[in-house]
Amino acid sequence: MVQANVAIFTIVLVVSTFSFGRITAPQLKWPISNALIEAPLSALADVTRTDPAELLAKLKTHGVTATPDQNIKELADAHDMDELHILGLVILRE
Question: Which of 14, 21, 36, 70 is surrounded by the fewest CB atoms within 10 Å?
Fold first, then answer.
């Protein structure tokens, strides 16, 4: 009886990890993040409805000099910063 309960619990636990074709938030997190990190700053300015010059000025106040054609990955490498930190500077309102 105890072995049967353990087996049933194990099966339920394993099955609960399957998404069965549904798209889940964790599946979307990294592809979206990577797309934003690899997009040029000019495109991110459009997405955030920010003037590109304002975005570049905002980044500069945080020590990140950039051009509209650069992406966050390039900036992170050039300034030895975390990509998600720079993405936060671009996306989040102050």
Answer: 21
User: Each residue of 44-77: pLDDT tens digit?
Assistant: 999 999 999 999 999 999 999 999 999 999 999 9
Structure tokens at 29: 């997190």
| pTM given for the model | 0.72
- DSSP tag of 82: -
The 10 Å Cβ neighbour count of residue 3 is 7
Contact 75, 86 (CB under 8 A): yes
> For residue 81, what are its two tokens?
């910063």
**Which residue has 């992170």 as its token pair?**
76
Dihedral, CA of residue 37, residue 42, residue 43 and residue 45, to nearest 10: 90
At 31, give phi and psi (nearest 5°).
Answer: -60, -40
